[in-house]
Amino acid sequence: MVTSFLAGSINAQPIDKLIEKFEQGAYSKRGADGCLMCHKRADKVMAIFDGVHGQVINESSVMAQLQCEACHGPQGKHRGKNEPMLSFGDDSPLTAQMQNSVCIACHNDTERNAWHSSAHVDNDITCVSCHQVHVANDPVMEKRDQPQVCANCHIKVNADSHKRSSHPIDNGTMQCSDCHNPHGSMSDSDLTGFNVNQTCFSCHADKRGPFLWEHAPVMENCSHCHEPHGSVNESLLKSRVPVLCKQCHAGDIHASTQPGDNQSIQTGGQGCLNCHSQIHGSNHSSGKALQF
Question: pLDDT category, 254, cuts 50, 70, 90?
């Protein structure tokens, strides 16, 4: 798979040499021992043995087969830096697709079926942009550390998550991948659920229904009223009640009452919610107005 991607490249010398090395398939008989003759002095290199990629878990694991060359390609005459090896990151001569093909060669499973159509692929994001291999614990795989990794690119979302009302990400109770699949999905925004509502219902099951009396915007899309990543308003609302309600109910029975008056039934306490407390839906026989 790697060779096919390399062969399609029009880049200069390093790519051409890598193609030639893959065609020759001159893998080292010494494996990692040959690599470590020079690279054992680098702590970043040696840290591979602290993580899962450096362990011989079974016969199919990286270190049980081609070892370092499983990711960095056949050694050939690399000793003394005479020939290039596959490298990863921003300084790599390989395109994002080429780099990712190395990882996908092993990590080609059901959790990543939608990777090739994901938002990350569309933006030329590489696996190593998020994942670290030469470490004991990959930060993006840790619940408390993952949001910081995502925040490197998703700056606005990170800012929203620190607003007055937000999901419990800071304390490690939630992580970005609870709602989004970074490797892609069949939903908008790579959501883990079939749509926005199904994703929200995985935690907020009490809002799922079915209800005898349904609130149409709720059934259609939770984000009509809520900002999923954070809001300055209570309960992640897009705006305060009754202003939020007025966006749809401007011509309803209370329309003549101007917000702002302390005596207004709409602005006192919870405004519209003073009466219409079952805003997500009601099963009461008299709950047509979502009051019971």
Answer: low
